[in-house]
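Supplementary material to the annual report.
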Amino acid sequence: MSETKQVMVKVKRQAGPKEAARWEEFSLKWRPSMNVIICLRDIAENPVTRDGKKTTPISYDSNCLEEICGSCAMLINGRARMACSALVDQLEQPIRIEPMSKFPLVRDLIVDRQFMFESLKRVKAWIPIDGTYHLGEGPRVSPEIQEKGYPLSNCITCGNCLEVCPQVNEHNQFVGAAIISQVRLFNMHPTGAMNKSERLSALMGPGGIQECANAQNCVHVCPKGIPLTESIAEVNRDAWKQALLGWLVG
Amino acid sequence: MRQPKIIVVGGGLAGLMATIRVAEAGIPVDLFSIVPVKRSHSVCAQGGINAAKNQKGEGDTVDKHFDDTIYGGDFLANQPLVKRMCEAAPGIIDLLDRMGVMFNRTPEGLLDYRRFGGTLYHRTAFAGATTGQQLLYALDEQVRRHEFEGKVKKFEGVTFLSAVIDEGGVCRGICAMDLRSSEVKTYAADAVIFATGGNGAIFGRSTNSVVCTGSAQAALFQQGVDYANGEFIQVHPTAIPGEDKLRLMSESARGEGGRVWVPRNPAEKRAPRSIPDAERFYFLEEWYPKYGNLVPRDIATRAIHRIVYQEKLGIDGQPAVYLDVTHIPRETLDRKLEGILEIYEKFLGVDPRVEPMRVFPAMHYTMGGIWVNGEDQASNVPGVYAAGECEYQYHGANRLGANSLVSCIFGGGIAGPAAVKYAKNLEKGAESTASAVFDSEKKRQEEKNQKLISQDGSENPIIIWRELGEVMTEHVTVTRINRNLQMADGKIRALQERYKKINLSDRTKWSNQTLNFARELENMIILARVVTLGALARNESRGAHYKPDFPERDDVNWLTTTRAKWVNNDIQLAYEPVDISLIKPRPRRYDAVK
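Predicted assembly:
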């Protein structure tokens, strides 16, 4: 019998936030179109390490498996990306799988990204409608604005842009590129623009837009190809304009 | 006056809409979701949302939307509420537009509309090919705003285990488990709205997300909440096969002009693009000249199965057909379909703008679900409401594309105020329910967990799940034959026995995903039996339910809603008539003129 092709995987395990981390290695049966999620499922089905030791299934977040829910972000061979679209055949082996490092660890590959949802509150990333009762159609929006806004609204809050940002660290509460880009989106919308200054103000102060040091890592890892650096530049301009105007008016 | 309290379980479109409506009424609402609500399965909806806005001057009307929906559903849906949904649809689009959804626009700045299956009108508003994501985000943002203002409290990462039902049979809250600590707790409420989605996972692989197990519905079913039309599930004609998931290729690809074909010669070896038109079999266009590639999904799915299994014309002898958009200008593709084309490109490494896509049908949508009355989304258990895909009401025997988003938002929009009204009218709220009622439910659930964690067994839950999926997909999807259905039920019951011997391979309490999965699996098996037994009993063909031994629709005997009940720890099927007071049933013939 010919030897079946194997996939070598190394996973960083950690039983809880206060436990010590350790690496486990697995040898899995290769199949076509395998992705990292399939690797993790294989391990769950037969939780035995490469050297034959019994272990527990690996805890990880996943949901849609088509890169639109934002759940399965992790570090794969050191790169922040979505596990579902990380195809084994395109990865160097052993495939190293680790949790993201900029968010509190829960267990194994699960981290807590609540900070991002809280930041969306901070900048009021919504259109403040009067109510859900009938008030007629929304404002007309030019195709030009739609074509600018739609890519921004594709943000899946995965956190990859925060993971790779040097300004996101234990000394700094920088909200990160995703949130700034959302401010741009809402400020661009004809109704959202009515609260533009409020959102810009929320981006000034600790953790705000001035923390960006222009490393531009964010835009390279965004799985949705969002023009994050463009968003930061534009929001930054608006924020300065507003600050300057405030200073001039006194 | 006492302040009522509402719980919503599920944070997809229906759950979020219900939450917003309750919050707007000034009533506190607790929102429970397995995942952060922004990651709910609604994000996977691609093509669009239907409303008869008639913005292309084609003479589309609400009545035509209503008729298309009822006819598309093969007359199994109760009609009055479907009519109300179609009437409400244009207003729902307006609301979403006001919330800032980045819908595609016409040069005049108005919403653009595309065509979809089962209609001849441009009725589908869309935001690229990620409409569900865009709609979910809009509602998520509104809920976040209410959360910010203190009206909504979110419990994300907390999974529903069971309802708390008092001795009078009234729901007084829920029992749920924190997915991190595994702690089981009860939460009191005067009414609970369930918006827990579909049950794709009982078929193993489907287009659904990981959380779409139907577990909540099955748990409720075992507590006396009836389940209707379980046998009606939708197999979508065009998905990309994958080992972990069958990824949807939206109907919008065909709405924008995509064509389905196979080579006429089964031994064809040439690359698809070098096969001349005359040697291609555009079977949907030939068989259904009027609707062509936009026949309803059940029809397209059966046609593809016929091509592959009877005509033996699958590409390279494989279960696959071409979905071809290569003739559409690249600029149009990128503006209107980029989201789905990217999925194909990323997961298969092939650019569908250049190469025709290879697709095959996949389990996609759950038409059946929690039985609710035809008025206000209330189930048969007082205090239990349901909205969205987890209930059965709007799509009859087959759902039309782009009707799901509208039914979620409409149903959620009704359920919220209905639950508030019910809660306000209660003589005694959950606050006066004896604590023993909550304690005993909590104890029951904790004991289940303890048993699973501690038992020694030989069975792996993932393997049982996979076998369940194989049985269901083979026998209980597109073509249903009674002796196979009987055999399938036997196999499911055998899996139920094996389930008793499962071994979790993780006995810790912290973030133990195997424990939660095992809990869900037990419920999935019950729901799989409801689907299978419903299919076995229904000796006719209607919409997505097709039995070659009973190829015709039988309105004399089967113009009925299946209503499964849990009696003496087993499934019992009952039937009730369908409300056909508005449109008289007529033969459903997409190959002929309607």
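Chain A touches chain B through 70 residues (CB under 8 Å).
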